[in-house]
Amino acid sequence: MQITEGNYQISGVNALDLCKEYGTPLYVYDTAKMEAQYKRLTKAFKGTKHKMNYACKALSNINVLRFFKDLGSGLDTVSIQEVQLGLKAGFAPDDIIFTPNGVSFEEIKKAVDFGVRINIDNLSILEQFGSYYGGTYPVCIRLNPHIMAGGNIKISVGHIDSKFGISIHQTRHLERLVKSLGIKVEGVHMHTGSDILDVDVFLQGADLLLNVARDFPDLKYIDFGSGFKVAYKPNDISTDVEELGKKMTKIFKEFCAEYGRELEIEFEPGKFLVSESGYFFCKVNVIKQTTATVFAGVDTGMNHLIRPMFYDSYHHIENVSNPAGKKRVYTVVGYICETDTFASDRQINEIKEDDILCFRNAGAYCFTMANNYNSRYKPAEVLIHKGKAHLITKRQTLDDLLANQVEIKL
Ligand SMILES: *Cc1c(COP(=O)(O)O)cnc(C)c1O
What residue stretches are annotated with the Orn/DAP/Arg decarboxylase 2 C-terminal domain (predicted)? Predict the structure, then answer.
């Protein structure tokens, strides 16, 4: 989003016009940014056979899935419903990887029936899988390298206390199961968390994973998960994917030479591909000055954007209605009957009631985490593609809230 001739525009589309046409609160995504991020990442790994699987839990609208499919991306899924969405979006089963945590063996069997790639993250399910399928259906193994990384404890998933993956200290047991049940291991995988800034953390994890990979002779790919950090503030730093690409390509190629075969390097980014493509617009309902604070109360809350309350995430906020205004200090709060603070003591261009505010980095884990708390409707979603706005999700109505409720006579 840029200011052009005094107006905020997203790829040439006027932001205030979008809010007028579709109402607020409103999620808007720009395919130009998604494409730029996808190309940046694939370019960084062009020196080796690579594949990016878009982690669709970040933003799961079917149009977004199709957009990534058309760019050549695969799909990373964490539930059987995401698998079904991916198939409906037109992904070939082999381009979908199912990486669930703590699901039943029944759900894994469904994924096998759909023909997608399966990533197993615990020994109990692996043992059931091996007993049931033997070597007839290949699997990928999710390992936990036990490194502490990530922006917040809720999104750090590779550390020692984490529920994710098979511990690298359990590889003896793992090998025992694989051998005795004849399991065919086609991939090994790790995912250590989100918002990892340090390239060396990735390399350290990669080293541990490659060490385990040596023991599996039938590999086709090695999946290094995700966790790339994006910029949240103006001039914020992000993961240097170019440096990462260069260093990992070198390590990976050396590994392949030693392994005796060229394997594919895979990643499953969510946030990196869509976070910065998204904007969340809301309207200021009330300016409330208390003895201590100037609150800007907006027409949305933690029901539509929970990341600031759940992860302490920073979302940059701009007053789209007052691009040239002078900065003043505000605490931006939602309309939910809990303390749902989006930002405290934030400098924002002077705000009046009815002004439109914009939250940045609203592409990943924002709409997909929205809910109906306080019986509010979920917002509409709009996709900007080639300079044109398209409605891709309608705002909910009262009928949606009641759709699955069954009225009984008491
Ligand atoms: C959530 C998740 C991702 C995506 O993480 P980002 O930080 O959004 O890139 C990748 N892989 C797995 C297994 C995940 O659960």
Answer: 27-363
Kindly state if the Cβ of 269 falls inside 6 Å of ligand 1: yes
Scanning the structure block, which residue is given the tokens 């030479």? 257
Look at residue 84 and tell me whether its pLDDT is greater than 90: yes
Closest alpha carbon to 337 in 372, 296, 306, 302: 302
* Ligand 1 nearest-atom number relative to CA 364: 8
- Cβ of 225 closer than 6 Å to ligand 1, yes or no, is yes
Every domain of the chain and the residues it spans: 2-28+275-402, 31-274
Please classify residue 325 by burial: count the beta carbons closer than 10 Å to its beta carbon, then call 0-12 exposed, 13-18 middle and 19+ buried.
middle
Instruction: Write the CA distances from 374 to 10, 192, 298, 377, integer angstroms.
Output: 31, 35, 15, 9
CATH number of 31-274: 3.20.20.10
Contact assessment for residue 300 and residue 372, using Cβ atoms and an 8 Å cutoff: no
pTM of the model: 0.95
Residue numbers belonging to the annotated binding site for pyridoxal 5'-phosphate: 227, 365
**To which residue do tokens 């260093």 refer?**
247
- Name the residues annotated as catalytic: 337
Q: Spelled out in words, what is the top-level CATH class assigned to the domain 2-28+275-402?
A: mainly beta
Measured distance between the N- and C-terminal CA atoms of the chain, rounded to whole angstroms: 53
- Tens digit of pLDDT for each residue in 103-157? 999 999 999 999 999 999 999 999 999 999 999 999 999 999 887 665 555 555 6
